[in-house]
Amino acid sequence: MILYFSGTGNSAYTAKRIGQEIQDETLNLFDKIRKQDHSALSSERPWVVVAPTYAWRIPRVVRDWLMKTALEGARDIYFVLTCGGSIGNAGAYLKRLSEARGLRFRGCAGVKMPENYIALYDAPGREEALEIIGRAEPAISGIARLIGEGQPLPGQAVAFKDKIQSGLVNDVFYPAVVRAGKFRVTDACISCGKCEAVCPLSNIRLENGRPRWGKRCTHCMACICRCPREAIEYGKHSQGQPRYRCPKTVED
């Protein structure tokens, strides 16, 4: 079974592509995490977790869900992390997580997809995004083939910089940056409630028709990128910048 977490669609697309190639089912973790649903899941085929890379590691909301949820049946687990650049030393942390859950770690692979973290970076336009996804297709197919054959995903060389980024930088980044304080709504808001509906942590609620953010933000960028009127901004950086949603589906 393929479990995925995806704020703007990159990891959803990757998960569904792998599922398509190995003929395995996919499960979106958004509702599970939103409802704090930790009921056991069972699969006779290896577990595959697909998620974005947050500061060179798996998102903490996904890590926490995995630590509290029993994965029954198959004992092998693979991880596939989408990223705008690199996954750093994420594999080392996922190996420890797997061992803590009594699962056999079968490797972690990175898939470079279009940048979506518009809190800090610029997202590409549609055509550039499609080109990046096109270049990612061989990597996705290669990962799917190895999983389908029951082979481990090959490890990658880890430099000292990777260890620092996944370690010290990640530890500092979360408390310093991953907050909802800079999100704001403009007069373009139509009170549709889309932002409230797509937040995986139920961190947004409408008050007098306007979204208000709480303190449980994970910076998945779902609210700002899925707003139909681009009425949400993050500080000054997002002003005038394109929002990002994966422009490709497995049916394309």
TrEMBL record:
<feature type="domain" description="4Fe-4S ferredoxin-type">
    <location>
        <begin position="215"/>
        <end position="237"/>
    </location>
</feature>
<dbReference type="InterPro" id="IPR029039">
    <property type="entry name" value="Flavoprotein-like_sf"/>
</dbReference>
<dbReference type="Pfam" id="PF00037">
    <property type="entry name" value="Fer4"/>
</dbReference>
<dbReference type="GO" id="GO:0046872">
    <property type="term" value="F:metal ion binding"/>
</dbReference>
<keyword id="KW-0479">Metal-binding</keyword>
<dbReference type="InterPro" id="IPR047964">
    <property type="entry name" value="EFR1-like"/>
</dbReference>
<keyword id="KW-0411">Iron-sulfur</keyword>
<dbReference type="InterPro" id="IPR017900">
    <property type="entry name" value="4Fe4S_Fe_S_CS"/>
</dbReference>
<dbReference type="GO" id="GO:0051536">
    <property type="term" value="F:iron-sulfur cluster binding"/>
</dbReference>
<protein>
    <submittedName>
        <fullName>Polyferredoxin</fullName>
    </submittedName>
</protein>
<feature type="domain" description="4Fe-4S ferredoxin-type">
    <location>
        <begin position="181"/>
        <end position="209"/>
    </location>
</feature>
<dbReference type="InterPro" id="IPR017896">
    <property type="entry name" value="4Fe4S_Fe-S-bd"/>
</dbReference>
<keyword id="KW-0408">Iron</keyword>
